[in-house]
Amino acid sequence: MAAIDGLPPLREVIATHELVAKKALGQNFLLDLNLTAKIARAAGDLTGCDVLEVGPGPGGLTRGLLAEGARRVLAVEKDSRCLPALAEIAAHYPGRLEVINGDALAVDVLAHLTPPIRIAANLPYNVGTELLIRWLTPAVWPPFWQSLTLMFQKEVAERIVAKPGTDHYGRLALLAQWRAEAKIVMVLPPEAFTPAPKVHSAVVHLTALPAPRYPADPAVLERVVAAGFNQRRKMLRSSLKGVHPRIDALLEEAGIPPTERAERVSLEQFCHLARLVAAG
Ligand code: SAM
C-alpha cells in the first residue's frame, strides 16, 4: 500500500536500497509513518521553520517533518548508503530537503540554516547525549534553536527531566532544566523500531527559555554541579571542598545544609551557590 505522501512504504525503501541496519551506527529505524508524523507534530508548529534532523536513515521522520509543513529540513546522515533513499524524498519535496553526508559531531550546520530553527531527531544512541550537551551549552543564550524534539533511551530521557531527590537527578537534569523546559512527550516500546533495541525509548521535547531560570555563570555552575555529582553519595561539604576554601559557609548562605548530598539540591540552590562561588 502506498504511503500517504505518495512515496513508497519504508519497508520497500529499505529493501530497494538494501539498508541492512548497522549496529555500529546505532541504526534502529522507525518504519511506521503514522508514528513519525506524530513525532513531527510533537516538535511544534513547523511551518516557517528550518528543521535540523540528525541521522535521517531511510527518512521516516524526515518525511513526517516535511509532511507536517517544515519550511526546510537539513538532514545530516553519516551512512552514505541512505543517500539514494533521501534523494527520492528531496525530489518529492523540491527545494525543501538538503542532505549532508557527514558526522553530525563534525559538520557546521549553522551555515545551512535560517532562523527560526527547530531540531528533531531519532538520534543515534552513541552520539545522542553528546549532541544534546552541545546544544544545551552554546557560547550565547538564547541558542540558535527554538526547540529540540529528540528520541533517547528511556533511561536517558528520565535523566533529562528528573527532579531533585530522585534516582535519575544529576548533571543532565540541571543542564537541561536551567535554560530550557523539558518534557517527555512519548514513550515507545522496543517493537516500534526495526531492529528492536533492548530497551524502551522516549521522545523528549525541550523548549529554549529566553533567559536562564536563575542567574549564574555557566562555567562556575557546571564546575559546582560536576564536583557535587562526581561523588553523589558524599556530603557536599566534602565533594565541593576543592571548589572553594570556605565552602561550608557558602553552602549555609545558599540555604544548603553542608551535610546534604547533591541529589537533594534544587536548581535554584545550585545557582545561588554558583553565584556565591563566583563572587569569591
Ligand atoms: N531517523 C531514522 C529513523 O527514525 O528511522 C534513523 C534513526 S537511527 C536510530 C540513527 C541514524 O543516525 C542512522 O541512520 C545512522 O546512520 C545515523 N548516524 C549515526 N551516527 C551518526 C553521526 N555521527 N552523524 C550523523 N548521523 C549518524
UniProtKB/TrEMBL annotation:
Gene Ontology terms, MF aspect: 16S rRNA (adenine(1518)-N(6)/adenine(1519)-N(6))-dimethyltransferase activity; RNA binding
Enzyme class: transferase
InterPro entries for the chain: KsgA/Erm, rRNA_Ade_diMease-like_C, rRNA_Ade_Mease_Trfase_CS, rRNA_Ade_methylase_Trfase_N, rRNA_adenine_dimethylase, SAM-dependent_MTases_sf
Keyword Methyltransferase: yes
EC number of the protein: 2.1.1.182
Domain of life: Bacteria
Protein name: Ribosomal RNA small subunit methyltransferase A
